[in-house]
Amino acid sequence: MVDRVASALAPTSSVVTDARTQILAVALRLFATRGFDGTSLQDIAQLVGIRKASLLYHFESKEQLRLGVLDHVLSVWNEGLPRLLVAAARTGAPRFSSLIGEVIRFFAEDRNRARLLLRESLDRGEDMRMRLQTFVAPWVGVVTEYIREGQKNGDVDPHVDPEAYVVQIVHMVVSGMATASTLDHALLPATHSLGSPDERHVRELLRIARTSLFRDRGTP
Amino acid sequence: MVDRVASALAPTSSVVTDARTQILAVALRLFATRGFDGTSLQDIAQLVGIRKASLLYHFESKEQLRLGVLDHVLSVWNEGLPRLLVAAARTGAPRFSSLIGEVIRFFAEDRNRARLLLRESLDRGEDMRMRLQTFVAPWVGVVTEYIREGQKNGDVDPHVDPEAYVVQIVHMVVSGMATASTLDHALLPATHSLGSPDERHVRELLRIARTSLFRDRGTP
DNA sequence: ACAAGTGTCTACCGATTGGTAGGCGCGCTC
DNA sequence: GAGCGCGCCTACCAATCGGTAGACACTTGT
Q1: Would you tell me which residues have their CB within 7 A of strand C?
Q2: In sequence order, which residues have a C-beta less than 8 Å from that of residue B40 and are 6 or more positions away?
Q3: Does the domain spanning B67-220 belong to CATH 3.40.50.11190?
Q4: Nucleotides of strand D within 7 Å of the protein's CB atoms
Q5: pLDDT in tens, B62-71
Q6: What is the residue-wise DSSP string for B94-127?
Q7: Mean pLDDT in residue range B25-34
Q8: Distance separating alpha carbons of residues A170 and A137, to the nearest angstrom
């Protein structure tokens, strides 16, 4: 009965969701840019437009908010997993481009995701390790499976260590997206004719990933 | 006279240097593991074995301590620069291994260096960008020069974007060393016959860097 | 012997932190 | 229309933060 009314009109629950969602969005932004310890509940509440006490009504503690933000980001990642499996349905180089493209797109869509994940890995390595095992290990399993398949086909370099390869690519993507405006812009001269630092960054990332994977250096 | 006595016994100045050095070492460790905002002056002082007020005698503010730690790490990096130029005196693949080996060694010697630099990039992107331009841009210039030289020789793949390539390799090294115990151990099964996660990590990193650089995939 | 540092200490400060208690208004259900 | 729960509020709390003031020991140059 309650469910029927709530799902039909969802008057109360929509407001609740709205506030919670707004808090999560602001918290993600601040946690990612200033860090967890560098962000006060006051800061978050102010940007949302409510009082600190109201914030603590939705999340019973700062720690719960942290977990909420992290879970939300990881759940968004999981939502994109079907699209990832579709990409994996291809073969050879197209499969490669699709798979890595989906990963890049996820972090490029909101770089704060990369910043948050990186910060969480630094702040709470142990917790993060277990969470990653749950959330990304299955996906890594799919990818490494295809790499090994490619090695049998002869398309993929037999020297590739599938798991270690994926880890390194992820490091490049996450670290690159998180600190893009720092390291890249500091070292990539903007006056270059090859496009913006971001474009050069992604293009070279794809090239490195491709040529170090395929035995014939992919599609040069 | 003062110099003679000081250099022979170094009673006062050694104590002074000792305290400062000790503070810098502890601060590096805590800033790297807990972050700047997650570390209190009390924490640092306690681990050094002095009082907070004594700490503030050596560094007039927490901000000055942050800068002191950062400058110290970057100066240690600069001390290794000559050794790096020696490595660059070789040619072909040996030059490549020596150069990237020196970089890996620097961060592997103390992973907190990687963690600190990563955190600083996240916390203070602007400041860090300028500092990197001063400290690592010259070194990057040397490396990209050799890459371009290799492209003329025909050893290096002409598709390589030298600056972007170096940025990506640095991302892999720094991010990998900083979060090694997190992402790696979560995804690299320890029961594998190829060695410890760290060994697999470094080996695959070198393979990716090598095969994506040289036209003949380096020395397979 | 004595004045001038030098390094560390205790004691304290105002500001900010995460979190709690309790009141107020609104819309809902009986 | 009385009760009730939800969402937000004001007001407050103890703890901790970075930083300061000033006393005390000890060494050093004259």
Answers
A1: A 5, 11-12, 39-43, 52-53, 56, 60-63; B 12-13, 15-16, 19, 49-54, 57-58
A2: none
A3: no
A4: 6-11, 16-22, 27-29
A5: 999 999 999 9
A6: HHHHHHHHHHHHHHHH-HHHHHHHHHHHHH-HHH
A7: 97
A8: 12
Amino acid occupying residue B127: D
* Helical (H) or strand (E) element with B22: helix B12-34
User: Where in chain B are the domains?
Assistant: 1-60, 67-220
Give Cα separations from B87 to B65, B76, B81, B82, B137 (angstroms).
33, 17, 10, 9, 18
Alpha helices, DSSP H only, in chain A?
Answer: 2-8, 11-34, 41-48, 52-58, 62-79, 81-88, 92-109, 111-123, 125-135, 137-153, 162-178, 185-187, 197-211
In angstroms, the CA B63 to CA B67 distance is 6
Amino acid at A138: P
Instruction: Please give the pLDDT value at position A10.
Output: 37
Pick from B196, B117, B210: which is nearest to B157 by CA? B210
Cα angle B108, B109, B115 (rounded to 5 degrees) comes to 60
Chain A: residue whose CA lies nearest to B166: A187
Residues in chain A with pLDDT < 50? 1-16
Nearest protein residue to D11's C1' (by CA)?
A: A53
Q: Pick out the nucleotide with least CA–C1' distance to A57.
A: D7
Per-residue CA distances from A162 to A5, A74, A175, B75 (Å): 50, 23, 20, 37
What are the φ/ψ torsions at residue A82 (nearest 5 degrees)? -60, -45
What is the spatial distance, in angstroms and rounded to an integer, between the CA atom of A6 and the C1' atom of C29?
Answer: 14
Question: How many helices (H) and strands (E) would you count in chain B?
Answer: 13, 0
Taking the C-alpha atoms of residue B137 and residue B131, their distance in angstroms, rounded to an integer, is 9
Q: B104-154, pLDDT tens digit by residue?
A: 999 999 999 999 999 999 999 889 989 988 888 888 888 899 999 999 999
Superfamily of domain A1-60 in the CATH hierarchy: Homeodomain-like (1.10.10.60)
Q: What is the DSSP string of A200-216?
A: HHHHHHHHHHHHTTBTT
Question: Is residue A152 packed enough to be buried (19+ CB in 10 Å), middle (13-18) or exposed (0-12)?
Answer: exposed
